[in-house]
Amino acid sequence: QVQMVESGGGLVQAGGSLRLSCAASRSISSINRMGWYRQAPGKQRELVATITSGGSTNYGDSVKGRFTISRDNAKNTVYLQMNSLKPEDTAVYYCNAYLLVGTRWYDYWGQGTQVTVSS
């Protein structure tokens, strides 16, 4: 049982930066993997970045080198620092938590935050 609230989205010009935050309702140390996904109009939801409880990170090819995922365990918060933003980064960004509860794996999602990059 995890609830996440995303924040930090908004409108930014190409080349600019934004930092998204995902505040979880429980210790993220107990969550096996957290991440960010995005969905642009007319497209499927795609991986942006993930981070495991052990600190391993993974990035989608389109954002590698520009975006950085990080966590603050004390604040139960995961961040996505987005630099050198491009218009094609425009999407709704969703926070995801994947964790084992009992004998089942669960997938939880936040409500999303809109990121719009203008040219």
Helices, strands, pairings?
Elements: E1 4-7, E2 10-13, E3 18-24, E4 33-39, E5 46-52, E6 57-59, E7 67-72, E8 77-82, E9 91-101, E10 104-109, E11 113-118
Parallel strand pairs: 2-11
Antiparallel strand pairs: 1-3, 3-8, 4-5, 4-9, 5-6, 7-8, 9-10, 9-11
What does this structure look like?
The chain has 119 residues and is mainly β. It is built from no helices and 11 strands. It has strands at 4-7, 10-13, 18-24, 33-39, 46-52, 57-59, 67-72, 77-82, 91-101, 104-109, 113-118. The strands form 2 sheets. Strands 2, 4, 5, 6, 9, 10 and 11 form a 7-stranded mixed sheet that branches. It has a 4-stranded antiparallel sheet with strand order 1-3-8-7, with no helix packed on it. Strand 4 (33-39) and strand 5 (46-52) form a beta hairpin.
Number of helices: 0
Largest sheet, in brief, is:
7 strands, mixed
Using the CA coordinates, give the radius of gyration: 14 Å
Give the helix/strand class.
mainly beta
How much of the sequence lies in strands comes to over 45%
Ranges where pLDDT stays below 50 over 5 or more residues in a row are none
Shape: globular
What is the CA-CA span between the terminal residues?
A: 40 Å
Quaternary arrangement of the chains shown?
single chain
Mean pLDDT metric: 96
Helix and strand sequence = EEEEEEEEEEE
Number of DSSP E strands = 11
Task: Indicate the percent of residues in helices.
Answer: under 10%
Quick description:
It contains no helices and 11 strands.
Tag the structure with descriptive keywords.
0% helix; seven-stranded mixed sheet; globular; 119 residues
